[in-house]
Amino acid sequence: xxxxxxxxxxxxxxxxxxxxxxxxxxxxxxxxxxxxxxxxxxxxxxxxxxxxxxxxxxxxxxxxxxxxxxxxxxxxxxxxxxxxxxxxxxxxxxxxxxxxxxxxxxxxxxxxxxxxxxxxxxxxxxxxxxxxxxxxxxxxxxxxxxxxxxxxxxxxxxxxxxxxxxxxxxxxxxxxxxxxxxxxxxxxxxxxxxxxxxxxxxxxxxxxxxxxxxxxxxxxxxxxxxxxxxxxxxxxxxxxxxxxxxxxxxxxxxxxxxxxxxxxxxxxxxxxxxxxxxxxxxxxxxxxxxxxxxxxxxxxxxxxxxxxxxxxxxxxxxxxxxxxxxxxxxxxxxxxxxxxxxxxxxxxxxxxxxxxxxxxxxxxxxxxxxxxxxxxxxxxxxxxxxxxxxxxxxxxxxxxx
Length: 401
Ligand code: G
Ligand code: G
Ligand code: MN
Fold this sequence. Notes:
15 helices, binds guanosine-5'-monophosphate, eight-stranded mixed barrel, five-stranded parallel beta sheet, alpha/beta
């Protein structure tokens, strides 16, 4: 495994090199200038397995480095090493993630050996997953087309819970690709591809039809679960989309209110005329519309004013840790208040701990979703999971009431 170290301070480079050698990593390239690091990565990114990067550097700083690294083909994962304060480091991490770079963590100077060992273990897990899922492989559009037609896309479902009653109210549909060679491939590996290759309408249709069929069979078995499906902004370019959706719902004899379409806010567009036309007609047909990942976009307030959403889904970046972080808490509470004023239902995603759960319940959020409750699962596992959840439920709601 080959590691690239970038820091303008030669002493810092030396210290990190010694620490890494002590942990058994001997293949190291040290750069004092971001330009040199980029040149090496542009020539052959695949020869580097991991980059440690300082933020504060004269000349090209860490932010510019991140921007340029994102333009490299198959960039390796990153670890930030910095003396800057937590909030600043977190913004750089977010920026890197927004560029679709893999960030394995941040180490504060002076780097503690334990922290170093931690990120190297994360890297180990990451490469294992990588070889298991072919994560850095780019798929040709034809493969994806065949996958959609051949039924290789499989829906997973993540339950959503009413924070007051503790009852399972519905599920969010999350598609995966059961790839014949690479195993389970996650949507961030193929949704952007589907959008670029003009396959998103077929993909959404396949996901939607399967989710509605599943919804039907759950209802037949006595579980009245609402089903949420993620749609891409590109789906809102076809004026007949509301008709297609309505037809799929009536084919399964389902109430329109049992379907929620989640639209990611950051994708909402400059020209809202066609999306507004489509979203309004979906609402006229009583289909629920959710503004997904709320808080991450740019003009959230204008969109709330202009578009007919009736559910607000708080992004997980604001939810987890809100109980103890003042700025997160303020953002969550204000978003909930805003949603209340607009008579929108609220869903918090990324509920990872009991503290997250308790905080949201007390703050009056309607529904919760996240790893604290459960990870997404296959449809056939849901009934068994619900019966286990029902055993856990009383203890969770007692604390609130
Ligand atoms: O768990 P997960 O890795 O599935 O989801 C990653 C992202 O992929 C989420 O932002 C989710 O909204 C998106 N996603 C999951 N399934 C679909 C889908 O069927 N269509 C679209 N457009 N996005 C999806
Ligand atoms: O963007 P969208 O909201 O559709 O994304 C849902 C994504 O969030 C999926 O990738 C899902 O696997 C992931 N997810 C669900 N619950 C949690 C959680 O508690 N923590 C984190 N970090 N991710 C979660
Ligand atoms: Mn979603």
